[in-house]
Write a structure and sequence with these properties.
By secondary structure, the protein is α+β, with helices and mostly antiparallel strands. It is built from eight helices and ten strands.
């Protein structure tokens, strides 16, 4: 609130990390095995952070929030448009097909867009998720301020969080829709110079983990320093 800045930082779920009680494996498994609290604890342990608050929202809830703000404006490539339409047809969604270029996406379409990975990689999917978040804030800018309280209740009712309605209203009162939004991803090949992405043998993974996994492998200590610098305002 002091800097009027919002930083969206994606930690890629295929990052290889240490998870309590398991061999090194995908970061995403922490949530699968222990929910939000365990996932936050795993992030703090591996990236040497001290996060103590969280909000968790599944894809279906994201769709509801997007619809609440009136949809989001997203620029699609032809390949992305094809996949959004395919998903809509699969779930028998009756919205008009999207096309290459700028489109107003409803909730289901925004979720379909955010989940695309087969045309490139998880890194680009994280970028799509960030684009949806950024577009949601742009949509909020056009909402009457009087609607913010209802939006806060809708958001809180759609997530698991440590925040109270008072916390949420304090954030909303600071005008976050007008903040500068800056996007980051860890790992990022422009910064994690030792980055390896590929199939890795995981012979000690145990029965719940694949013996061979596709993982992002990089120096977590260096990445944790970058993360701290991003949070404090000292890094790109």
């Amino acid at each position: 609130k002091t800097r009027k800045t919002m930083k969206v930082i994606s930690l890629l779920r295929d990052s290889r990390v240490d998870i309590e009680g398991h061999a090194p494996t995908k970061l995403g498994y922490a949530y699968k095995w222990g929910g939000s609290v365990f996932a936050v604890r795993t992030i703090n342990r591996n990236f040497l952070t001290d996060f103590n608050q969280f909000s968790t929202m599944n894809f279906e809830n994201v769709a509801a929030i997007v619809d609440t703000v009136g949809g989001v404006d997203i620029e699609l490539t032809l390949e992305e448009a094809v996949r959004v339409n395919r998903y809509s047809h699969d779930i028998e969604h009756d919205a008009p097909d999207v096309t290459e270029g700028w489109n107003r996406l409803n909730g289901a379409q925004a979720v379909a867009y955010a989940r695309i990975r087969d045309i490139d990689s998880e890194y680009y999917r994280a970028g799509r998720q960030q684009a949806v978040i950024e577009a949601m804030f742009s949509a909020i800018k056009n909402m009457p301020v009087k609607n913010y309280i209802a939006l806060a209740h809708e958001v809180l009712g759609s997530m698991e969080t440590t925040l109270t309605i008072g916390d949420m209203m304090s954030i909303i009162a600071s005008g976050p829709a007008s903040y500068e939004l800056i996007r980051y991803t860890i790992p990022d090949e422009n910064f994690e110079t030792d980055l390896f992405g590929g199939w890795v043998d995981n012979p000690d993974g145990g029965p719940e983990e694949d013996p061979v996994q596709w993982l992002w492998v990089y120096d977590l200590d260096a990445a944790s320093e970058r993360l701290k610098n991003i949070i404090s305002g000292g890094a790109n």
